[in-house]
Amino acid sequence: ERLTGQRLNIIIVAEGAVDRNGDPITADKIHKVVVDKLQQDTRVTVLGHVQRGGNPSAFDRVLGCRMGAEAVMALMEATPDTEACVVTLDGNQAVRLPLMECVRRTKAVAQAMADKNWDLAVQLRG
């Protein structure tokens, strides 16, 4: 197919992906659609844990150090009245967010998905 100008494609599906009706999206379902509707030669490959993880890049290592440093700073600055926090990323910056706000947003995402309010779910995920 490359000779005719067509390109190869890779379709990646997240574990736990669901469609608008809440039905699971599986690799086998996607395979069937591609074969039946597009008449394309298709194969399914499920990556194992080692392949998914791979070796960390230099960026991964630096990011881990920066997030760890931010967590240590949060501990050093904490008082008995300090609200619990989560160290997360905003762009490429390690930032602290209130733990309970993170819990609230996580529950709100789950509720938006249960309600099939996909736009809100995406907005809440950031």
Automatic annotation (TrEMBL):
A Gene Ontology biological process term: canonical glycolysis
UniProt-annotated location(s): Cytoplasm
Annotated catalysed reactions: beta-D-fructose 6-phosphate + ATP = beta-D-fructose 1,6-bisphosphate + ADP + H(+)
Enzyme Commission code(s) on record: 2.7.1.11
UniProt cross-references to InterPro entries, sorted A to Z: ATP_PFK, Phosphofructokinase_CS, Phosphofructokinase_dom, PKF_sf
Major place of residence: cytoplasm
Pathway: Carbohydrate degradation; glycolysis; D-glyceraldehyde 3-phosphate and glycerone phosphate from D-glucose: step 3/4
Named cofactor requirement(s): Mg(2+)
KW Hydrolase (keyword) present: no
Gene Ontology CC terms, in alphabetical order: 6-phosphofructokinase complex
Gene3D superfamilies, A to Z: 3.40.50.450, Phosphofructokinase domain (3.40.50.460)
Record's keyword terms, sorted: Allosteric enzyme, ATP-binding, Cytoplasm, Glycolysis, Kinase, Magnesium, Metal-binding, Nucleotide-binding, Transferase
Nucleus as UniProt keyword: no
Name the record gives this protein: 6-phosphofructokinase
Biological source species: Bracon brevicornis
